[in-house]
Design a protein that fits this description.
mainly alpha, 617 residues, globular, 3-stranded antiparallel beta sheet, two-stranded antiparallel ribbon, 19 helices
């Protein structure tokens, strides 16, 4: 071995003592070969392939990819590393904000408050709870009312359990079946047209319960298992005008304390009573279409009482000559109930015999439907013409059945349009008596019909109609209806709401026995209750939602309990109020249900008109 470099200078050993003599020799030879090759390239400019490999040296070894066996798949370790990083980044970007958001205290936005019409509608429905007779359910919601009238009709041998249930008509404890039926028809009509609104505001089940409370009772007033009737019970309780014997008018007692005789009136001829009952049952059968058994029972009852109404031998008005009815709820005719009842029966059954009757020219002729007299242009418990013609106009607007109904349906729509024009122009006095007596029930009925007709037109994309040379926009009807209801709710010269419990300024001395007598477990006798009738103090019990008679034509109102024309509520009046309010409220959206009322109506295939008479020269 050499201890030093023979060319001078030290000899550096790269690998120390680990390098063998052969390895040092090969390394040295390689360096010389490379130097020789470089010298040759510089002088001759060409290298063969072997010489190029010597100059460039041995190729570098490529790094081998490393893999990871995950059991079900084998993947590159590098790919796995990137995947893990991307997953962690996704967690950071997506999951972390969600976690943070869930940990932050939540502040749910408050739902917009219901409009005033909805708020009053809740109250107006509660009035019916306060008017219930019979054994009350635990959820009735009126703390100062209890079971009452449990002996009504107990002496009747053909009615098992008597005539228990139903509603007291007003501030007296009388059950008048004619206006009660009308109230049930109006409530059902409002549900059929505006079911979505009732559901949206949480009153659908409530209003159905109210309707069923009425129809269940009315089904007791005749033999509902029979196909032919000879009588209908038309009233429970009542009294004679200026009578001095204990009865519902002479006495002032809570319904729960009644201790006087309550006679039952029997009608053996009553086409308007039976016609209105038929309308109530038929309309309710559409409301309860989801309960097939009950709906079928109602349809059967409607057909049975309508057959009684149409019996030619039973066409004397139900009130004629009866002093317990004639002064209070006297009927002025029954052809309007024929049109009204047959229209509802057609919608409930699809039986064309009913629509044929409703469009028979003799019906409107005898009802004086086309005379356009002010009294017959206002809907009331006694006059159904405006409502019946609007209900039949609905058929023409949406189904257009054509011949053989078209001529009469067109007449009904023409009269409806004229009535609506007169209403919207303020050219009709909403009082059927033409006197100075207040009667807001006619106002709310007119508002309901106007609002409903506007919805019919809007649902058909009809902006209005021509009344002679005048174009009447549907908005005019809505404005009319809104103005009438706003007046009742306080937009009037007295700034008084005529619906009890609405706002702060409303009638406090309502003509109502149960509301005016303290609920203090003391029983007051027939005349012992007079002190509460004559008291100048406000009622101890608030009959929320009751619409009173209202002001006179000079906008004067007397908040006096013993002046019933101003301060007494009625079933018929509140039913119209409910219908008008639900038509105007926006809390549950806008518009009507176009199709539900036609559920039982079969497809219409227009009958070809008869051929023209043969030509004669």
């Amino acid at each position: 071995m050499y201890a030093s470099n023979p060319w001078g200078g030290p000899m550096e050993i790269a690998n120390g003592g680990d390098t063998t003599e052969d390895e040092r020799s090969r390394n040295l030879t390689t360096e010389w070969d490379r130097a020789s090759v470089m010298h040759q390239y510089q002088h001759h400019g060409a290298l063969d392939e072997t010489q190029q490999s010597w100059l460039l040296g041995p190729p570098e070894e490529k790094k081998k990819n490393k893999y990871v066996d995950l059991g079900c798949v084998v993947c590159s370790r590098k790919l796995l590393k990137w995947t893990m990083w991307l997953f962690a980044l996704a967690l950071l970007v997506i999951v972390l904000p969600v976690v943070i958001a869930k940990t932050i205290p939540k502040h749910k936005p408050h739902e917009p408050p219901p409009d005033e019409y909805t708020a009053v509608l809740h109250k107006a429905l509660m009035f019916f709870n306060a008017q219930k007779s019979g054994r009350l359910p635990s959820n009735n919601g009126i703390s100062w009312r209890g079971n009452s009238g449990l002996q009504d009709g107990s002496a009747l041998t053909d009615v098992k359990g008597g005539l228990v249930g139903g509603y007291y008509d007003s501030g007296e404890n009388v059950k008048y079946h004619f206006p009660m039926s009308f109230a049930m028809t109006m409530l059902s009509w409002s549900v059929i047209e505006y079911e979505a609104k009732y559901r949206a505001i949480g009153e659908y089940d409530h209003v159905r319960d109210l309707i069923k409370w009425g129809t269940d009772y009315l089904l007791l007033t005749f033999n509902n298992t029979a196909t032919k009737l000879d009588k209908i019970y038309s009233q429970v309780g009542g009294g004679l005008v200026n009578g001095t014997t204990p009865d519902d008018y002479y006495c002032w007692e809570r319904p729960e304390d009644m201790d006087y005789a309550r006679p039952v009136q029997t009608t053996r001829s009553g086409p308007e009573l039976a016609g209105e009952m038929a309308a109530a049952f038929a309309a309710a059968s559409i409301v309860f279409r989801d309960d097939i058994a009950y709906s079928t029972k109602l349809v059967k009852g409607a057909a049975t009482v309508f057959a009684f109404a149409r019996d030619f031998g039973k066409r004397t008005t139900y009130s004629k000559g009866n002093p317990y009815i004639e002064y209070y709820y006297n009927s002025t005719g029954y052809y309007d109930e024929y049109m009204w009842g047959s229209a509802w029966l057609y919608y409930a059954t699809g039986n064309t015999s009913y629509i044929s009757l409703a469009t028979n020219p003799g019906i409107p002729k005898n009802a004086k439907a086309f005379l356009m007299t002010p009294k017959l242009s206002v809907l009331s418990w006694d006059n159904k013409l405006p409502a019946a013609m609007l209900l039949l106009t609905r058929l023409r607007i949406f189904l257009n059945p054509g011949y053989p109904y078209e001529d009469m349906l067109q007449m009904y729509q023409n009269v409806t349009g004229l009535t609506m024009f007169i209403l919207s122009a303020g050219l009709i006095e909403l009082n059927v008596n033409g006197q100075a007596n207040p009667d807001l029930q006619y106002v709310v009925n007119a508002a309901f019909l106007a609002s409903l007709y506007a919805d019919y037109l809007n649902a058909s994309a009809i902006p209005g109609w021509n009344c002679g040379p005048t174009f009447v926009a549907t908005d005019a009807l809505r404005q009319f209806a809104t103005a009438q209801i706003d007046y009742i709710l306080g937009s009037n010269p007295l700034n008084m709401s005529y619906v009890v419990g609405n706002g702060k300024n409303y009638p406090k001395r309502v003509h109502h026995r149960a509301a005016s007598i303290p609920h203090d477990k003391n029983k007051y006798s027939c005349t012992g209750g007079w002190k509460w009738r004559d008291s100048a103090n406000p009622n101890p019990n608030t009959i929320t939602g009751a619409m009173v008679g209202g002001p006179d034509h000079s906008d004067k109102f007397k908040d006096l309990r013993n002046n019933y024309t101003y301060s007494e509520p009625t079933m018929a009046g509140n039913a119209g109020l409910v219908a008008a309010l639900v038509s105007l409220t926006s809390s549950g959206g806008y518009g009507i249900d176009k199709n539900t009322i036609f559920s039982a109506v079969p497809p219409l295939y227009p009958v070809s008109p008869p051929p023209p008479p043969p030509w004669r020269p």
